[in-house]
Amino acid sequence: MDAVTYPDEAVITFINRNMIPLRIPSDQQPLAGEYGVAWTPALLILDREGHTHQATVGFFSPEEFIPSLLLGIGNMYFHKDDFTKALNRYAEILADHADSDAAPEALFQTGVARYKSSGDPKPLKEAYEQLQKEFPESTWTKRAYPYRLIR
Predict the structure, then answer these.
(1) Which one of 13, 88, 97, 99 is most buried, counting C-beta atoms within 10 A?
(2) What CATH number corresponds to the domain at position 61?
(3) Domain boundaries, position 134
(4) What domain count does the chain have?
(5) 20: three-class secondary structure by DSSP
């Protein structure tokens, strides 16, 4: 990722505007052990308290890296029950990175966040229907499958 992704101007700009990057070698103890970093590249999205909200391992192209970071940030807000901010990040993925690998999960999480913020289960079914239409082979479509039964 050092040769392709990190030097990309869009990646640099996104990280500088949205994150506080910290690089920890996989053999750097105790942090690598504390966060379960056993292989590189490993990317962790942490909150201010150091809680992990997303962990990924492996190479990302610049085109996939930014949506992955957006998803991690959205998931952080989701885990903190800040559904408005989570939905904004998921919407950004769906609007600006609709063809990315992060898009199906962002769509799934949109349905769940809308349900959790309203108590209305209809967004879960809507998310399933959109997943079925746009990403029929996605694991997120399979995970949303039970939502088809919501009336």
Answers:
(1) 97
(2) 1.25.40.10
(3) 9-149
(4) 1
(5) coil
Q: In terms of pTM, does the model score above 0.70?
A: yes
Side-chain-facing half-sphere of 25: CA atoms under 13 Å? 3
Pair of tokens at residue 53: 């909200």
Say how far apart CA 65 and CA 1 lie, in whole Å: 10
Task: Give the residue from 103, 42, 36 showing the smallest Cα distance to 74.
Answer: 103
Strand 42-46 relative to strand 52-57, pairing: antiparallel
∠ at Cα 126 (121, 128), nearest 5°?
Answer: 100
Q: List the beta strands (DSSP E) in the chain.
A: 42-46, 52-57
Reported as a single tens digit per residue, the pLDDT across 79-135 is 999 999 999 999 999 999 999 999 999 999 999 999 999 999 999 999 999 999 999
Strands (DSSP E) contained in 77-116 are none
